[in-house]
Amino acid sequence: MSQFDAQDWITRLFLRLRRRGYLLGVDEYQAALEAIVAGYAQNEEALLELVQILWCNSRSQQNQLVLIWKDLQRDIQKQQDLHDNLKDRLEKESSKSERSQEENDSRESLKPKPLAREVELQPKQEVASLPVQAPSFTATEREGLLSLQNYFPVSRRSMVYGWRFLRRPVADGCKNVLDIPATIQTVTEQGYYLAPVYRRRQRNGARLLVLVDQNGSMMPFHRFSRDLVETAQDESLLQEENVQVFYFHNVPASHVYQDVYLTKPIPIQDVLGQCNGDTSILIVSDAGAARGYRRQERIQNTTRFLLQLRKRSRLIAWLNPMSRKRWVGSSAEILAYLVPMFQMDRFGFGEAIDVLRGVAKASTEGDDEG
Amino acid sequence: MKEALKFEGKDLRQQPIGAHEKAPKEPEPYIVGDRLKTAVNLAIALRRPLLLEGDPGCGKTCLAKAVAFELGLPFFRWDVQSISKAQDGQYVYDALGRLHDVQLQKSEKASRRDPSKPGDYCEMGALGEAFEIKDRSSVVLIDEIDKAELDFPNDLLTVLDKPWRFQVKETGQSIQADPNHIPIVFITSNKEKGNLPDAFLRRCLYHYVEFPSDPKELKKIIDRHYEIENLNRQEDEKVERPKENLQDAAITRFLSIRTEGGLVRKPGTSEFLDWLKALQTFMAKPYSADKLMGEDQAEKRLPYPELLLKVQQDWRKFKPAT
Question: Which H, E and C letters describe A214-255, residue by residue?
């Protein structure tokens, strides 16, 4: 009992970490087992270190793991105590029964055996039932989790990744890209070398117009809209002059603004005048879902605006930073029927990009899941 | 049964016996902590790449070389650039050179490469070379992986996993590492462009290289550094080691600047060593230890701030001492 069972620990820890959202697969589990067999986990400390190296991929995760580890340690200790108690009791009982059996039965050698096996089985059943218990958190631990996960519906990386799909390659640049396979092909056909074959340089012809709702209920999400705009402008494959960003408050009216502080107005007609049928239009707004508003006026105005947009381009998508559950009952629910609206997480963003590049059907129906 | 490789962080001065010809010739002044040692050995045992993160100048890059030196293994370094592609680490094919040589053949100026042999124009990258060494493992360093394009780590993943093989398209050749001698891969990252992809992280072992904030450890690093510096020098060319009191003063002062100075950008180990060297040798006489700890500290002066402070805001916090 006193011997440290690394395999048991690692299995429990693995299950626990997976529930906590660690990205671990069977491969990682097997790697840990392999390391244990190779003698890398002689005691608890060494095992913790092993797991930190093997299963964590940032320092904050390594620190978080220590807390989870302590939790596990506590639980295992608790179980151990329980098990010891049980064993004591059973031993007492069995010795009692042995004594009584010795007195009246001649087959005494058979009976204690199943009892002894039961003693061994008991703790294993405990092991299986343990994960059902709610793990106890300390306050700091829970806060850490919140700030790590809940406030990051979509990471900058996935934004950059998403934007990369928004491309419409047009080979209309200068003819200065050496085409090696074509050159070699020509040489082999002609039998002599005359001149290299050049191709036209490709350019991303996709155009993007981003309209961002600013201030008010969007205040908590400024961080994300800023990331979104920055990644679109600087880290996407889009040509710089093809990305345009304008801001508005609640509903785009006759004017939108060129800066985040809503101080430089520009007539919406001028903005739309630069759009052609291939311009992708992305609207970022909570559509009243953040505060649960459902005002007739706002819906009407937004609808009018959307119809205006529709005349210019069919590649329109709406990103809503509120989760889909919260749309119900607010104006977002109604607007989601008019325009493809997606919640701002990794998948929602990906789908929005699909609409923007015209791959997904920009239909407004069949959007009623959730 | 092959002998398992184990890295112990020994203070070797010379190459171990039987070292590979491509192993580093010079020892690396590197002090390895226990944790890092475990991480390296785990990476070797589990055949997974070891991802090293940490502040710049804390010795992420040197580790791979130190491991290769101690174990006498061939060492290949691949510096990733923003235009690097995953294939560059495997091989580069010189199609143009071949075309060029075909033309030259006709004009009787024969090239040393034969255009009728496609293999002549294939040059192996760091991983390709490592895969081709069959009699022992090799050490591959993929430096600053975060500099490259977003997809780069994912592309790399297919090569850094079973069956450790890739195909040279141009020649149809298949390059495979010996399953008993899988390369030991070190990867460094500064998180310059955000996180690496999940699938890649999952595959890697992770270690964060901390700055050695223990004065004793810094002292060890200084010792080892000067020892190796003087290893191959004649008696009269030896670099003079700073006096004990100057060393101590420099360590104390440096650590206090690092921890209490509220710096925007904290200097690393390599900068510290440079600074110490400047204190010792830049002027005719070494800088006075008493002055460094006494006057200078009291008046927030710092000799040679050029070596430690690299951001304007930090620069303003200390006056240069003369």
Answer: CCHHHHHHHHHHHHHHHHHHHCCCCCHHHEEEEEECCCCCCE
- CB contact under 8 Å between B42 and A53, yes or no, is yes
Q: B107-156, pLDDT tens digit by residue?
A: 666 667 888 888 888 999 999 999 999 999 999 999 999 888 778 888 89
ipTM of the complex: 0.77
Tally of CB atoms within 10 A around A45: 9
CATH class of B34-90+125-209: alpha beta
State whether B207 and A53 contact (CB < 8 Å).
yes
Q: Per-domain residue ranges for chain A?
A: 6-130+138-148, 171-204, 205-356
Interface test with A, best of B7, B50, B99, B146 (most A CBs within 10 A): B99
Alpha carbons B28 and B46: distance in angstroms, whole number: 25
Chain B interface includes A237 (CB < 8 A): no
Asked whether the beta carbons of residue B202 and residue A31 sit closer than 8 angstroms, the reply is: no
- What's B31's DSSP letter? -
What pLDDT, on a 0 to 100 scale, did the predictor assign at position A350? 85
A289's CB contacts (< 8 A; 6+ apart) are: A320, A322, A326, A327, A330, A331, A332
8 A C-beta contact, residue A155 and residue A347? no
For CA atoms A311, A314, A315, A321, the dihedral sign is positive
| Cβ neighbours of B205 in A, within 8 Å | 53-54
Beta strands in chain A (DSSP E): 169-170, 177-178, 198-199, 203-204, 207-213, 243-248, 255-257, 265-267, 279-284, 316-320, 341-343
| Single-letter amino acid, residue B290 | D
> Are the Cβ atoms of B103 and A193 closer than 8 angstroms?
yes
The token pair that represents A67 in the structure block? 């807390």
Count other Cβ atoms within 10 Å, centred on residue A82: 13
* Cβ atoms B171, B122 nearer than 8 A: yes
Contacts of A65 in chain B (CB under 8 A): none
To the nearest whole Å, the CA of A53 is away from the closest chain B CA by: 5
B187 touches chain A (CB under 8 A): no
With a CB cutoff of 8 Å and minimum separation 6, the contacts of A327 are A287, A289, A320, A333, A336, A341
**How far apart are alpha carbons A361 and B14 in whole angstroms?**
67
At residue A102, the pLDDT reads 55
Could you report the per-residue pLDDT of A345-358, keeping only the tens digit for each? 888 888 898 888 88
Across the interface, do A180 and B204 touch by the CB < 8 Å criterion? no
- Cα separation of A278 and A356, whole Å? 9
What ranges do the domains of chain B cover? Answer: 34-90+125-209, 93-119, 215-321
d(CA A240, CA A243): 6
B266, B210 contact by CB (below 8 A) = no
Tokens of A178: 């050496």
Nearest to B206 among A31, A57, A180 (CB): A57
Residues in chain A within 8 Å Cβ distance of B145: none
Which CATH fold would you assign to the domain A205-356?
Rossmann fold (3.40.50)
For residue B243, what are the contacts with CB-CB under 8 A and spacing of at least 6? B286, B289
